[in-house]
Amino acid sequence: MTDLISKKMIVLDLDVSNKDEAIETLARKIQEEGRLNDFDGYIKQVKKREEEFSTAVGFDIAIPHGKCIHVKKASVAFARLKNKIKWSEDESVKYIFLLAVPDSEAGDKHLQIIAQLSRNIMRDEFRRKLEDSNEIDQIEKVLEL
User: Fold this and answer.
1) pTM to 2 decimal places
2) How many domains does the chain have?
3) Is residue 73 part of a domain?
4) From CA 5, how far away is CA 28, in angstroms rounded?
5) Is 125 inside a domain boundary?
6) How far apart are CA 64 and CA 46, in angstroms?
7) Long-range contacts of 109-114 (CB under 8 A, 24+ apart)
8) Contact between residue 64 and residue 55 where contact means Cβ atoms under 8 Å apart
9) Which keywords accompany this UniProt record (predicted)?
10) Looking at the domain assignment, is residue 45 inside a domain?
11) CATH number of the domain that 48 lies in?
């Protein structure tokens, strides 16, 4: 995932009160790296997807995503929240991986990213490192797996 994420798209102990605020904060990080064509269009797509079906995947983790023309370059932004927030009626989250994938790569690239993240999320060691790492450099190394 080294080409998908940069240090500037990793936020530790993010203090937000709801899902929309978390998504917008992470999307802004992707935008600041020049990876979106249209911030508002991308946000609209992510929120629409989230309304259709929650992206909480268990283990206090959510993987919201947008596959659309508003994305220039496939990206993953990550946040570890200061406090858990309610993500869906049944789940709260503390870790968020926000995916942005251009329409042109929506099939393969999107599935590859989700598959790799899913494999990692299932590993206790991966989740422990997300919680215990105190530096962005450490998190970046964890996400390079």
Assistant:
1) 0.95
2) 1
3) yes
4) 14
5) yes
6) 7
7) 109/74, 110/65, 110/67, 113/1, 113/4, 113/74, 113/76, 114/63, 114/65
8) yes
9) Phosphoprotein, Phosphotransferase system, Sugar transport, Transferase, Transport
10) yes
11) 3.40.930.10
Query: What is the reported pLDDT for 27?
Result: 98
Mean pLDDT split into 10-residue runs, the chain, 145 residues: 88 97 98 97 96 95 95 96 96 98 82 92 96 95 81
Residue 7, pLDDT score? 95
Residue whose C-alpha is closest to residue 28's, from 61, 75, 68, 62: 75
* Owning domain of residue 134: 7-143
Q: Which pLDDT does position 2 carry in this prediction?
A: 62
Q: What are phi and psi of 118, to 5 degrees?
A: -60, -45
d(CA 86, CA 60): 10
Tokens (6 digits) for 34: 């020049």
> Distance between CA 118 and CA 115 in Å, rounded?
5
Looking at residue 63, its pLDDT comes to 97
Residue reference for tokens 């869906």: 88
For the beta carbon of residue 36, count every other beta carbon within 10 angstroms.
24
| Domain presence at residue 11 | yes
